[in-house]
Amino acid sequence: FSCLQxxxxxxxLTQKAGIAAKLFGFLNTIFNFFQKLFxxxxxxxxxxxxxxxxxxxLKGDEYVVxxxxxxxxxxxxxxxxxxxxxxxxxxxxxxxxxTLSDEKTLASYGNIRDGTKLTLVVKKPDPLREVIFRxxxxxxxxxEQSQRLTxxxxxxxxxxxxxxxxxxxxxxxxxxxxxKGQNV
Length: 184
What we know:
This protein is of the alpha+beta class. The protein is built from five helices and five strands; from the N terminus they run αββαβββααα. It is about 55% helix and about 15% strand.
């Protein structure tokens, strides 16, 4: 009986060793693939040249932003947001008077290169009432119901704002600025 056990156990170990060897070979192949992939990507990144774009805010400051041809307009806006504290959603970038699309890359425009000057127009944020109404319209079909809910929301919001003390407002402002990384 013990002879039978040893034979079964040896067969089991042999099968496991074969599976382990195949698994090791597979993992080694994957490792080699990723090594080649990273080598290729580092070669590609060497060919990507950085460019400096000057962004002039209409009637305001000027900023220099570094980018590559593969950077999107949205990437540029986010970089500019970090430098200027103007939210990306309020930014409208122009090149020779034409609006640039957020999802397009710099290369897709063809005439944006190192040293190009872009103009930034800061869009005025929508009033709270309009934003709330649009959100209700998105989920509630009847316009009357959306308008009624917007009115109720705004009345409640105004009432709650009126109840805030100066300490509450200061604490709220401090929290908002702290989240944006600014000191009060």
